[in-house]
Amino acid sequence: xxxxxxxxxxxxxxxxxxxxxxxxxxxxxxxxxxxxxxxxxxxxxxxxxxxxxxxxxxxxxxxxxxxxxxxxxxxxxxxxxxxxxxxxxxxxxxxxxxxxxxxxxxxxxxxxxxxxxxxxxxxxxxxxxxxxxxxxxxxxxxxxxxxxxxxxxxxxxxxxxxxxxxxxxxxxxxxxxxxxxxxxxxxxxxxxxxxxxxxxxxxxxxxxxxxxxxxxxxxxxxxxxxxxxxxxxxxxxxxxxxxxxxxxxxxxxxxxxxxxxxxxxxxxxxxxxxxxxxxxxxxxxxxxxxxxxxxxxxxxxxxxxxxxxxxxxxxxxxxxxxxxx
Length: 325
Description:
Number of helices: 12
Helix content: 25-40%
Number of strands: 15
Strand content: 15-25%
Order of helices and strands: EHEEHEEEEHHEHEHEHEHEHEHHEHE
């Protein structure tokens, strides 16, 4: 089979190389899956660089989220067991963690439903306890993680403010359903949020960016507001001033979704049931901006690493070169 491998850490476009390799052999409790679609996540780029908290042994195949097919023909969502990741024709995954792919979604959409939407659901509902009528601010609202949070916020009955970088991403955020869109490259984020909320600020802030975005969040969070920290795509990890959180009476909530797989896996299944129901009634639908063939995976991961994409890019092994849509 064909599989992308990282033999030496570096930028994805340089570190990833396509090889003809043997199909992986499942271990105890694992199954072999034919990859129908693999969704690209920012952690895939971090793993190529050797900067992620999970560091699989070299060489490894990136790709942490797929829609796959079991040997008996079931369509499932899975997190491949590294080092045999999803940017390949076949991957392995833990049998106990397989989730049924929603019938309402195609392969690429189903592959993009899992990590980003689970993170959004846990962040907004389990951690921040978002309520209908509250104001939700989402940083990087047109990206893969942010777009999921926007849709989940709207489905929960929140008023959603999306912060993006650039006019093209602003257009995407509006299409996703944001009630207010702020282009951080053309507007003062702090002033725009205060204007949009009548000076009150946002009840819940969803931050996958860190850096300056977190600093802005602390200045526009409402009384009894909650800032949910889910990542640091900016590359800058902020050091919060806890005296500021005390004086303004807001909470800083960390979310490491992966821990639920070991600490409380029943909640992951419950969340998937909720997401499947939302997808069935059209309340959420992963924004897949590109579908690329396996041969273009490295270039696509690099674009995600560079922050120039909107929504999700899916790698579809059955697509031929030049057939990406």
